[in-house]
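Reproducibility note. Readers wishing to regenerate the assembly model reported in the main text can use the exact inputs given here. Chain order matters: entities are listed in the order in which they were concatenated for prediction.
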Amino acid sequence: MGSPPPSSAPRPAPPLSRRSVLRGAAGAGAMGLLAACGGRSDAAFHADAGPWRRYAGTTVNFISENTAPTAAIAADLTPFTELTGIRVNIVTLELSALAQKVALDLASGNGEYDVVYADPYQVLAPYAPAFADLREFAEDPGLPRLPGGFGDFIPTHLDAAGRFGGDGKVLALPYDCPTMVWQYRADLFERYRDRMADDLGFDPMPSDDTTWEQYYAIAEWFNDKTDAVRYGTGHQAKQHDALMCDFSNLLWSYGGDYFDGGRRVGRVGTLDPGDCRLDSDAAIEGAAFYQRLLRIADPGSRTWDWDGLGAAFRAGRIAMCPNWHEYAASNEAAMPGKVGYARLPKGPARSAGMYGGTGIAVSDVIPERRRQAAWLFVNWATAPRTQLANLASEVGGGTPTRTSVYGLPRVTEAQHRPSKMANMLSATAVKETWRSDTIGLRPKIPMWAECDTAVYTQLSGMLAGDASPESAMRAATSRIDRIVARGWVN
Amino acid sequence: MGSLTTGLRRDGRSSGRRSRIPLPGFAGRMMAPGLLVLAGVSLLPFAAVVIMSFSRVHLLGGLRLEGAGADNWTRLFTDPDMAWAWARTAGYFLLTVGGEMVLGTLLAICLWRLRHGRNAALSLLLLPMFVAPVIVGLLGRFLTDSTFGLYSWLLGQAGYHGDLMGDKTTAFLSVTLMDIWEWTPLVTLIALAGLTSVPSSVLEAASLDGAGMPRTLRHIVLPAIAPVLLVALLIRSMDALRYFDIIWNTTGGGPADATKTASVRLYETAFRFFDFGYAAVTGLLMLAVTTVVARYFVRLLDRKGLAR
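Running the prediction on these inputs yields the following structure tokens for the assembly.
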């Protein structure tokens, strides 16, 4: 070893000891762990910029079901990024996976998702306190105003998809609005109209006066009298949420409902809906008719959800079905000019078509500026201009949730063939269904997912011959009562 | 392998001195980090699930547990749907594991007897095993779809016009067959490994003694490969009890709950209803059943000297 350097000379840098390396690695690891466990940072903020540009440089995370409007928006986010300087990450999932992600995100408290596709029954009702009241953003002078205001949204949509619990808060803006309508092979109805009228004793063309009994007779006529299709009617009767949707149309039209004050429970929502009323005479009558209808329907119905039913209809296998109106675009692509749309038939009480719309909400567990940046996206994504662009999009579609969009000349024209916005071909039928006296709203309660399962499981048993309509409805009632009695713990 | 502990003080004879906890030896110290990680990823979640089973789990505003006493456990024993789900699980277990063991062994014997092209045949046979169960479920759903499914069309040509997934019995059998299709190759592979280790001298001796194929199989081959088959049985049993992917992607548990097994019910309870307390109880029951089955087979293996 050499002699030690004189004290005046600069000391050479000591070699990196093993201990300091380990200490540094431990420190870096701890910081990484803290960063991973901590919430996300707040949004960038530029006080001098205009209302749309104040959060430029921020990235907003949007979690959505894989629906038509999201596909259209994801395909062209450039207008939003140019307008605001905000980047948007879109995560699209199947609905039940989305509900899981949102629940776990809320449990972790991380606030990973800024904008949430808030399904009224699986997300909004169970986790309503976790979403921001959008009125605060709409009234904030520092933020862009909501074009047309809340009043421009179709009222039933705003209540059903945007509110929960009757406290007036707006937790989500209506974003999509699938609604069940009667889809029928207009070409076949025209071709056989006179023969059917002679045989059946009524005009078979769908109208506001058509009843479910007439629907049944038409279906039976197609089964027996033509080879143009294999079956007259098809249904989404797989043991799945789809079965509850399909049955509910009958339930309501026969005067039954899930709970007392069902329309209020469906439109506004509640934590405590009271006793289940599926064991009422009207509900049992509706179930009995549904069972009878399914006996003459395509046997494949018991394996189809809405997608399976849509595929069967487009394959020319059935003459008519109740299904979501947003299948109009794919129907038109497969069978141009051959499909007609009408409001669902009426029963002894009324006509009712299931509404399946959803809003988009801003998470309340994220920092304030991030919430405001998220509001810019919610505002833009539901704006009339964006909804019009979605309607014309080749990759997406969806249908508008704003009254003003339906009044636009381009949209009005698209309601008739030839149409560049094929979903608009069903607009007349859905607008009739969205009236407060015809819309079908399932209960907006936090424990609906479990009640829904109880309903479609009992119905599936009924269709399989395990139970009579009466015992199926009574079994569903007692299960729902037990679920509701346990209450909601989240 | 050496003992994991050294310095074990045998103080029992020296009265008045307390016995100490044995210190880990070299091997023990080397394994300690791994064991700690293993404990972290298995014991802690296990403890969390046990605690959750006695709680009501709140998600909003961060995870919170509220004591629920034995409510979740009481519910388990009064829930008729759960009892049926377990009955169906037992049915699936017997059909899938039984079918796979019988078919897998038969196919292995056929391959074993094959003189040419065994490797090519084995490669083809193993293909289903490499498909993810989710994909098998999706494939099954498309192939049996009554509108565009190939199998439905073939059955239609053969005169069957029903809907496979629309009837309780056929849906049950269909999802069972899908599982058998996917996992029989695994049993074949394991059984074939056992067959190749049967001494040829014993087989020749049996042949010289005039034993035909059935007697050779019964008295020589099957006893020789029994321990290996037991390993296959153990592996498949563990998996069959957790049977989920294919059912969820084909029938979702229907029609009329005909295919709703305990694992489907567990998934629904946890991730559709977000009732984590009751899901924890269901999960613990499933763990207990799996452990009992595993212990039973391990004990059988132990008797044959294969567990060591």
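We highlight two features of this model. Residues 31 and 37 of chain A are 10 Å apart (CA to CA). The first strand of chain A starts at residue 59 and ends at 65.
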